[in-house]
Q: What sequence folds into this?
């Protein structure tokens, strides 16, 4: 039975790079959004919440199809990136990172938002009376108290990006080492009727997903309270 | 559900001997098949339910109990494989269409009549179907190798999972040009939009697309009728009008 070949390993490595990049980016971008959603009384709250949660219900093909059109040469994003000299995003690693960031957004924003909401206003008020700046408060009060939420967010964001398929299929172009992630590689193996190699990768994904979720729920029992609805 | 369908169909049976045939159709043959199905329904009174997708995916599904009775593949290997593995009726295979490969761009004037655009290399992305799984993709690689351009364009290739996805990459402008099936861009005897080069037949092995009667349909009149209909003049005329050879 053939074990993973160089192509499979390239896909595994690429997927890990993609998931790591996206997770870091999402923690940076998602935290302010989660913070805002947890505290705002703006009427926009509902709209932003809905936008963030959309990838949970939209078929990935819809997201992928529209991203392909928006990031294409005739789309607004495509025209912007071309004007900036970046070129077109589809079929590039950068394009996958951006698409995955949208796609995995709710898995990061929602746990962080729930964790911040669970802290409540009191510790923040106390910190303020002790003359902590908002920046200080964030790092010394919010982050430690919301740590389980951040951990859940990071793990779910990472795992969900690893499991991404439809979006990548639509905008990736299946380029080895650039956009051919594990899920696409599995699909190719199945399509090419190379079931033995498909099993190694697919079985690996099952083991990976189970391990990650097991870690999440054993190391971080509070995750149950602050997990995403996905 | 099946029983309900049977009761419904029994009601119509008085009018015509109506029966339903489920057909799995390769993605590149979607448009002609819809037309053929309509004609078939008119001519026979049977109903044809058409599912389109990739040949490799259908193969896996058929082997795992998918309810298809007729399979129109994008190649000739998969139907042969299904037959030898006992999932299709022996001796029912035949070539219903021979695909033609074109180099196509959605931009008018981008692809010249001799395909010199490939040699010049003045493009960013060249789309094709996955050569490992799609016959049109394999044909494209074969042609590139014969032209001695394969190495040169390697870094510019982007793959769609099916030929229709390769088409979509080109149609949306994300790829400057790409290898697609002539059937996807052929309308009423001409290239429908953009610019194209129909590759000479000696650049790639013929893309024979075979149909096969699956075991589930072997004894079913509607499935047998559809197989017959595909060989008939009416169907052949439709197939030719989409730019396939026969």
A:
């Amino acid at each position: 039975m053939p074990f993973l070949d160089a192509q499979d390993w390239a896909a595994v490595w690429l997927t890990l790079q993609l998931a790591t990049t996206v997770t870091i980016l999402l923690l940076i971008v998602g935290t302010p959004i989660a913070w805002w959603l947890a505290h705002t009384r703006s009427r926009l709250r509902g709209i932003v919440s809905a936008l963030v949660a959309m990838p949970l219900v939209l078929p990935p093909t819809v997201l992928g199809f529209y991203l392909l059109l928006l990031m294409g040469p005739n789309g607004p994003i495509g025209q912007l990136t071309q004007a900036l000299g970046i070129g077109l995003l589809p079929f590039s690693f950068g394009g996958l990172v951006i698409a995955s960031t949208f796609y995995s957004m709710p898995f990061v924003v929602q746990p962080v938002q729930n964790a911040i909401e669970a802290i409540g206003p009191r510790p923040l008020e106390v910190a303020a009376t002790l003359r902590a700046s908002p920046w200080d408060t964030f790092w010394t009060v919010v982050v430690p108290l919301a740590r389980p939420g951040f951990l859940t967010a990071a793990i779910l964001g990472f795992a969900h990006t690893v499991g991404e398929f439809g979006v990548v299929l639509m905008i990736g172009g299946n380029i080895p080492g650039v956009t051919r992630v594990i899920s696409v590689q599995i699909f190719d193996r199945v399509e090419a009727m190379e079931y033995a190699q498909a099993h190694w990768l697919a079985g690996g994904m099952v083991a990976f997903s189970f391990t990650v979720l097991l870690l999440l729920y054993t190391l971080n029992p509070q995750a149950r309270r602050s997990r995403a609805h996905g | 559900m099946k029983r309900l369908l049977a009761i419904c169909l029994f009601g119509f049976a008085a009018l015509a001997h109506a029966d339903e045939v489920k057909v799995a159709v390769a993605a590149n043959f979607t448009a002609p098949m819809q037309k053929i199905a309509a004609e078939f329904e008119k001519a026979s009174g049977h109903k044809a339910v058409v599912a389109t997708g990739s040949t490799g995916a259908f193969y896996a599904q058929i082997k795992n109990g998918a309810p298809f009775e007729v399979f129109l593949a994008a190649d000739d290997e998969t139907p042969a494989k299904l037959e030898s593995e006992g999932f299709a009726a022996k001796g029912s295979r035949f070539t219903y269409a021979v695909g033609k490969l074109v180099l196509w761009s959605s931009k008018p004037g981008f692809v010249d009549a001799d395909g010199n655009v490939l040699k010049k290399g003045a493009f960013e992305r060249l789309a094709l179907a996955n050569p490992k799984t799609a016959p049109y993709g394999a044909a494209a690689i074969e042609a590139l190798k014969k032209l001695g351009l394969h190495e040169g364009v390697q870094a510019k290739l982007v793959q769609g999972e099916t030929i229709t996805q390769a088409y979509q990459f080109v149609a949306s402008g994300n790829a400057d040009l790409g290898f697609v099936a002539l059937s996807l861009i052929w309308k009423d005897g001409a290239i429908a939009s953009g610019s194209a080069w129909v590759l000479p037949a000696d650049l790639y092995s013929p893309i024979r697309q075979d149909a096969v009667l699956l075991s589930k349909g072997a004894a079913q009149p509607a499935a047998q009728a559809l197989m017959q209909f595909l060989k008939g003049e009416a169907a052949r005329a439709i197939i030719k009008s989409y730019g396939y050879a026969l």
Residues 30-44 of chain B form the longest helix (15 residues). The domain at 101-198 of chain B is CATH 3.40.190.10 (D-Maltodextrin-Binding Protein; domain 2).
